[in-house]
Amino acid sequence: MVSIVVPVYNTESYLKRSLDALVNQTIDKNELEIILVNDGSTDHSPEIIQQYADKYPDIIRVFNKTNGGQATARNLGIRQANGEYIGFADSDDYVDVSMFEKMYRLAKAQDADLVECHYHSMLETGRDADGNPIYKEIDTRGTITAHEDPKELFLNPQVSPWNKLYRREIFIENDIFFPEGMIYEDTAWYIKTLPFVKKHAYLDEKLVYYSVRQGSTMTVNSGAKVGDIIKVFDDIIDFYVKKGLFREYYKELEYFCVKIAFCSNFSRIGRVKNGFMRKELFEKTFDFVIKNFPYYRKNKYFKGKVGLYIKSVGRWNCGVYSRVLSKVMIG
């Protein structure tokens, strides 16, 4: 059985499109449950959710909660899921109707702990005369491909959960949930799952239409919440230390954390308007890297253009790099 967890918060303009794709999945309905978690929406999302729950009572389960953020909604969904496998969908995205059947069949055929598919990255550029979103397809993030060695999953991944199908017991047996109260929670959640993925499978099809909205938290990031990435890094390291896995995965964690710190993190710092705050965020980033990974320039995974860039970054030139990255990286 597959459980699909869908957090919903004020996405009335997109929700019907998302739910239509989920209720029309080609997988046998006896093998599907859709868990809708209304995270305290104040628009018409709750009414839309109820309409679909009334129409599809055999496959939709609804949970209403006070607003606490996407992580809290997903965590509730994980705890309520009955499926052998858990997938995720965002309520402003939509998926191909064959997605979960294909991923589930592949998971069963290969006895996989994790299945990934590829995706379309759709930048919302405006609205048409009827109020429907207009999209422009842009480059995807991360290297999504087949991996024989699970350690390769640390290298340039797409950390978001919406293109993945996980064996549920990975979360439950290892107490892996999304960290609450901060942004970038996908980053911590994804990296914590990897030591427990013994078999990875890849479906070479673009089955998710991921919506990049210009005004969303992840595309604006203009305030102090940008600094949450350091909390996320600390959370990751603390998890690996407590599980006795830090030494075994040190080089992979070093690559993963330092690359994010000096790439996507710098791009977001470059969008912060307050100069004092930018300086403080740079200092926190370098302090974290030097404290935890002082010899990162020797990491075997840093090679090619990315390696040259990482090895050239310093406190003296990070401002220039971040301004450039803020222009070329979306999200």
Distance, first to last CA: 33 Å
Rg over alpha carbons: 20 Å
CATH-derived topology of the largest domain: Spore Coat Polysaccharide Biosynthesis Protein SpsA, Chain A
What is the helix content?
A: 40-55%
Count of DSSP strands: 9
Notes on the structure:
The chain folds into two domains: 2-218, Spore Coat Polysaccharide Biosynthesis Protein SpsA, Chain A (Alpha-Beta Complex), CATH 3.90.550.10; 221-328, no CATH class. The two termini are 33 Å apart. By secondary structure, it is of the alpha/beta class. The chain has helices spanning 12-23, 45-55, 70-80, 99-110, 169-174, 185-193, 217-220, 228-242, 250-262, 264-269, 275-292, 304-312, 318-328; strands spanning 2-8, 32-39, 60-65, 85-88, 94-95, 114-127, 133-138, 164-167, 200-212. Strands 1, 2, 3, 4, 5, 6, 7, 8 and 9 form a nine-stranded mixed β-sheet that branches. It is 41% helix and 19% strand.
Which characteristics define this entry?
331 residues; 2 domains; 13 helices; 9 strands
Overview in brief:
With 331 residues, the chain is α/β, with parallel strands linked by helices.
